[in-house]
Amino acid sequence: MGNDYVAMWEKLNLDITAHDGLLAVLGNFYNDIYLSQEGRLKGMEYLDFVLSEVHGLRIKELQDAKQAGRKIVGTFCIFVPEEITLAADAIQVGLCAGAEIGKEAAEQVLPRNTCALIKSFVGFKLAKLCPYIESCDLVVGETTCDGKKKAYEIFRDYAPLYVMEIPQMKAASDKALLKTEFMRYLGEIERLTGKKITAEKLRAAIQVVNNRRKALQRLDSLRKATPSPISGRDALLIHQISFYDDPVRFTHQIGLLCDELEKRVADKQGVAPETAKRVMLSGCPMAVPNWKLPFVIESSGAVIVGEESCIGDRNIRDLVDESGATVEEMIDRLVDRYFQIDCAVFTPNEERLDHIVRMAKDMKADGVIHYGLMFCQPYAMEVHKVSKRLETEGIPLLSIETDYSMEDVGQLKTRVEAFIEMLR
Is residue 50 over pLDDT 70? Predict the structure, then answer.
């Protein structure tokens, strides 16, 4: 990546000098955390290629699609139904929000004690470093926390923004609200694209997204094996790239990778010894290139076997019922599925506690590390109940609160190593 795409980046109005610096840092970071691993799956070569071209070839694909008349929709949250976006022949991509980028610019419009994820997506925009944001015909925000809600009021000054209201309780009236919002979003996407969403198109889109979920479910199911056949870092990368890559192509490639994984499991080949402690991550999402904590955990001798997060199991756990015949019936099925998401925005949120316990037992985790971004109030508040619930189940918990900087790596490593030693 580099000179071949400079003209494209200039046309997108990126800060080329700063962007070159970002890509250089990202490349070195990736080499240290990913390419240094031993015994990686051959199927990871595809993921390595996608990541190496994440600001290059994939952006060119998006630009070519725009030239052909398709619209690009950027999102920050798994509550935005990609099925509706695809049904109007638009492309949905996850937006940059996993690095400490443009912090100074972001803090000119946001309070300093704003969570790193919010600062990141605002910083990427203000610093002109995200070709995905610059490619979008529409950015879809959602009301999953007060910080995001208020940040969107500022962000809309810089990008075409649509905000979706997300219910925060699980009563019948909240489910009705979600349906209203999905129907409103359907209308917005039809206006954006100039295309009518038909039952046939929506059914096909549901199948595409369900197939990707099934491929990732298969991947995560294979991680139950002992020894673990894939590192947590590689599994996280796969989940992260699912938000960027073409969904049909990605599903095919992950199917091939799972074939390779199944052989490993049958041959009892692992990326770590059978005696390595199995850790499950829980909490805030980890967007590219937020790989700090997984690297610390696995370089301390443990292996990560699951992620209870929006970039992980929460995103793929439930499928959409494909039995709907009309558009409205299919919207109802979409609402049924998305209403099961147990984001920390909900109150009460006993479903998430139940799921953490089930998942930890299912993945045979020796302990859980709860990851929270500094100043992320919903997940920080839920740690108390998560801790009490896991204590009653006899499952050890370590709560980590951090941001995207590398300043606390030493401190994190000390705490993680002590936790793993305690598990032993």
Answer: yes
Range 141-154 average pLDDT: 96
Global confidence as pTM: 0.97
Count of Cβ atoms closer than 10 Å to residue 204 Cβ: 13
Instruction: Give the pLDDT confidence of 232-245 residue by residue, as tens digits.
Output: 999 999 999 999 99
For residues 286, 288, 289, 293, the Cα torsion angle rounded to the nearest 10 degrees is 20
Cis before 289? omega within 30: yes
Which tens digit of pLDDT belongs to each residue from 93-107?
A: 999 899 998 899 999
Q: Cα separation of 265 and 214, whole Å?
A: 19
- The identity of residue 338, as a single letter, is Y
User: Considering all CA atoms of the chain, what is the largest pairwise distance in Å, rounded to the nearest integer?
Assistant: 59
Rounded CA-CA distance 56/1 in Å is 6
pLDDT, tens digit, 9 for 90 and up, residues 160-219? 999 999 999 999 999 999 999 999 999 999 999 999 999 999 999 999 999 999 999 999
**The CATH classification of domain 204-319+343-423, taken from the options 3.20.20.70, 3.30.465.10, 2.30.30.30, 3.40.50.11900:** 3.40.50.11900
Nearest residue to 161 (alpha-carbon basis) of 142, 182, 177: 142
Q: What is the DSSP string of 35-59?
A: IT-SS--TTHHHHHHHHHTTTTHHH
The DSSP output letter for 139 is E
Q: What does the block give as tokens for 217?
A: 């479910």
- Judge contact between 164 and 138, C-beta under 8 A: no
Domain ranges of the chain: 204-319+343-423
Exposure on the CB side of residue 165, measured as CA atoms within 13 A = 12
Structure tokens at 134: 């610059």
The dihedral built from the CA positions of residue 130, 295, 377 and 282, taken in this order, carries a sign that is: positive
